[in-house]
Amino acid sequence: MNRREFLYTAAAGTLAAHVTPAAAQATNYDLIIRGGRVIDPSLRLDGIRDVAINGARIAAVDAHIAAGATETINAAGRLVVPGLIDIHTHAARTVEGPALVLADGVTGWIDAGSQGADGIAGPAVIARASPQQGRVLINVGRGGILPDGDTVDIARADVGALRDAIAKHRDVIVGVKARLSRENTGENDDEVLRRAQEVATAANLPVMIHMGQSRSPLPRLLDRLKPGDIVTHMFAPPPNSIIDESGRILPEVLAARRRGVWFDVGNGQNGHIRWDVVQPIMRAGFWPDTFSTDWNVNSPKTGVIDFPNCMSKFFGFGMSVSDAISCATVNAARTFAVFRDRGTLNVGAVADIALLELREGHFEFLDNYKNTIQGRQRLFPSGTILAGKRVPRA
Q1: Closest Cα to residue 20, out of 65, 56, 74?
Q2: How far apart are alpha carbons 294 and 367 in whole angstroms?
Q3: Each residue's pLDDT tens digit in the chain (394 positions)?
Q4: Can you list the pairs that 46-49 forms with residues at least 24 positions away whose Cβ atoms lie under 8 Å?
Q5: I need a labelling partner for 116 at 20 to 30 A (CA). Which of 63, 184, 305, 322 fits?
Q6: Residue 105: which region, alpha, beta or left (left: phi > 0; alpha: psi -120 to 50)?
Q7: Is the peptide bond before 217 cis (omega within 30 degrees of 0)?
């Protein structure tokens, strides 16, 4: 178990729901979600509860709320959890991205480096217009994600351009992304990270590194990370994985976590997760701090599918449902200041809620190398409440 405490308890069930007007009742609340299995690791809560909402805030969480409401959701058989927070997406690459992930229960997202200084205005506009909280990490390479490598030409890691772009869009830029695999940096990974850190540290922002298949040994790159920085694609296979040839966690990886560096899944589609790497890491108890999808508009047609599917992949490696929800809510809320008041159903908190269905059966989960594992449980998105309002499902 890692230093982010995972929270345990037990309770019940799954099924479907409908929304019913409650005009005949005395109306004390705007919305009540009734009879769902409420799992909120921030409150150490896992049990059948009603959740009442007034305006945009959680008003009550109780075993039975006798008062009425303008609108009632029957959540019997479903999970009622804090809105999911996906800290590694590419939702700002297209204008429809935020709404698509919102339908999956994602009430907060980070676009992780789709654009650099030259094109950051586009994602900034999308983040500002997002129905849910959306923010961006600016790519250290001024051209953003490029097919020939973001910073293979080291001149693209332009410190001045990066600094100016952050100053111009500081309302939505919450960090710097450095993609450090060899295909993205060539021989430049250490210098690219040094430049990213120079600007990020001066601006009091975190750096997220895309690790795996780098030229430099991972310990050298980890040495440049400060508390609050994030390592994404933590299950990337060698070269330069977080485990050695014997499958043991590198001591520098353990040291990085102890000093406050976060380790994130970043599921993605190519080169980022392989089951034979996941297994020894999870067995060693080095569990992810956060789940993320590396989502783009093609994700539903890949092994990503959606955020709840990515969460479900880890049940077979020892994680409980509550553990997975911790990674997607309370843990994720601690990574970026914009989410610090989210990831909880505490009374008074913003009423961002994901409704999930936990199905039992036989499910197949895909890594990035066409390898599959079998699972007996899978989470499915079933509804979203954003700031107290039900989000219509397509």
Answers
A1: 74
A2: 13
A3: 444 444 333 333 332 333 334 333 456 999 999 999 999 999 999 999 999 999 999 999 999 999 999 999 999 999 999 999 999 999 999 999 999 999 999 999 999 999 999 999 999 999 999 999 999 999 999 999 999 999 999 999 999 999 999 999 999 999 999 999 999 999 999 999 999 999 999 999 999 999 999 999 999 999 999 999 999 999 999 999 999 999 999 999 999 999 999 999 999 999 999 999 999 999 999 999 999 999 999 999 999 999 999 999 999 999 999 999 999 999 999 999 999 999 999 999 999 999 999 999 999 999 999 999 999 999 999 999 999 999 998 6
A4: 46/8, 46/9, 46/10, 46/11, 46/322, 47/9, 47/11, 48/11, 48/12, 49/80
A5: 305
A6: left
A7: no
Q: Are 307 and 105 in contact (CB under 8 A)?
A: yes
Please report, for residues 53, 76, 349, the alpha-carbon distance to residue 30 in angstroms, rounded to integers and kept in the order given.
Answer: 6, 19, 15
- Please tell me the CATH code under which domain 19-81+349-390 is placed: 2.30.40.10
Burial label for 204, CB within 10 Å (0-12, 13-18, 19+), is: exposed
Tokens at residue 225, please?
């990370």
Evaluate the CA torsion angle 364, 369, 370, 372 in order and state its sign: negative
Q: What is d(CA 289, CA 167) in angstroms, rounded to the nearest whole number?
A: 29
Q: Are 287 and 324 in contact (CB under 8 A)?
A: no
Dihedral sign (CA 168, 115, 206, 198): negative
For the entire predicted model, the pTM comes to: 0.93
Among residues 192, 8, 198, the alpha carbon closest in space to that of 113 is found at 192
Closest CA to 120 of 128, 108, 132: 128
* CATH number, domain 82-339: 3.20.20.140
378 three-state secondary structure? strand
Domains 19-81+349-390 and 82-339 belong to one CATH topology: no
State both tokens at 377: 């449980």
